[in-house]
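Long-time lurker. I teach an intro course on protein structure, and each term I like to show students one example going from raw sequence to a predicted 3D structure in token notation. This year I'd like something fresh instead of my usual example. Would anyone be willing to generate the tokens for the chain below so I can use it in lecture? Attribution to the forum is fine with me.
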Amino acid sequence: MYKATITVRLRQSILDPQGKATHHALQNLGFDSVDRVRIGKSIEMWIDAGSSEEARRKAHAACDKLLANPVMEDFEVDVAEA
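-- Reply from a regular --
Happy to contribute to a lecture. Here you go:
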């Protein structure tokens, strides 16, 4: 059994209104040193696979088909034994 942790983020070229609103709110709270904020999502999946590479391939396939929008988002997959 493997645990895949997937981080999905908007591509740098895509505007992030949620990140912009959060940045503005942080500045209003006095966090003037924060230069920019981008919001993403984290997904954890437990995968039954024979190897970490197989688990990684399955996680990538899930991202390609459902979890990430390839037009607007990039993703990273980290796999570890569960």
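Some talking points for your students: Strands lie at 2-10, 40-47, 73-81. The chain has one domain: 2-81.
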